[in-house]
Amino acid sequence: MSESVRPYTLVAELTYQCPLRCVYCSNPLDYGRHDRELDTATWLRVLREAEDLGVVQLNLTGGEPLVRDDLEALIAEARRLDLYTNLITSGIPLRRARLARFRELGLDNVQISVQDTVPAASDRIAGLRSFDRKLEIAGWVKELGFPLTLNTVLHRDNLDRVAEVVALAERLGADRLELANAQYVGWALTNRAALLPTPEQLERARSDFLNRPQAAQAFVAAGQQPLFRADELCAAGAEGCDMGLSGGMLPHFAVHGRGDQHPGLGVQRQGQAA
Ligand code: SF4
What we know:
By secondary structure, the protein is α/β, with parallel strands linked by helices. Helices cover 32% and strands 15% of the residues.
């Protein structure tokens, strides 16, 4: 077997559809034109080929992957291939019975995003009343015996509440907390004037986190003002790749990178793109 570096994790972006409209979403601004998703047979082939390449971890994501009715087939194939499979979801379209079925089929981990610890602020960022529902679903995840990852994207409006985010993760029994900077592509780039935190906020948040090293693991995606130095980052994704709707495969988190987008001044959402 070759000793060359191989990707060990695959981020499978199954769809750009989503019931939420987060102001920092990395979906493309013209996402309405990306309506041709890869079909089930193609994704099953991709999973097999990824496993052949050495991939051992699969992240099923979107948009909102729950809108796909073939998740069951993809999870079952991933289990057959012995991939560690993580479902990355807003949680909103989920039903408990479907989650239980995922468990039977071999899903390993569920990651739920929570936009803030203050319900009204969370709902405002998400563009939909969703906070209470997300907490209910996080409860199902634990009841059904899954490990739970909580994900919160950090920006100017919530960065002063990192300690509350950690406390919420503890209260929900999360096994892992992912604190991510907004990735300044897509809608986050358009809205960056409103989202970028101040240097003082970054330093306060950094102190909050470093005082709780045992309570949370941070995975911080590349941002314009990263919260942590590169040598403090989790290694997750360092040798991974993203596969988007077009079938193009790119280095992890580069799949949406576009140099031709320009920042706007106000906050905009999906459905409001020019
Ligand atoms: S960032 Fe928000 S709107 Fe975008 S896919 Fe995730 S949950 Fe949906």
